[in-house]
Design goal:
Layout lengths: L2 H7 L4 H18 L5 H21 L12 H9 L6 H14 L1
Helix pairs in contact: 1-2, 2-3, 3-4, 4-5
Length: 99
């Protein structure tokens, strides 16, 4: 299951509602230019870790090929045309290491 989809599918679960709100808050801060690249990356990594832990705590649904790590999936959801290329490269490097 992809991470943003996991958040959407479990929208009735208070834990996932809180994670969705964090994702939207992170997106808003990023779009408003309120976060430096390193702070954006740090918050994105923290959120990805929390989403992965939350997914581990709930009974598994039908397994799907995850393809991308949670960090990359979250990054794809919140990046915009002003996101520095270096942040995307770091996210991709981390994803390659995690796989």
């Amino acid at each position: 299951m992809t991470t943003p989809n996991a958040l959407r599918r479990r929208s009735g679960d208070p834990q996932f509602v809180a994670l969705s709100e964090r994702l939207e808050n992170l997106r808003a801060k990023h779009e408003a230019g309120q976060l430096a690249s390193i702070e954006f990356l740090k918050e994105l990594i923290d959120l990805a870790r929390d989403v992965a832990e939350a997914e581990d705590e709930v009974p598994p649904e039908v397994e799907q090929d995850r393809g991308k790590a949670a960090l990359t999936e979250l990054f794809e959801e919140v990046k915009n045309h002003e996101t520095p290329v270096i942040v995307e490269r770091v996210v991709n490097d981390i994803d390659d290491i995690v796989r």
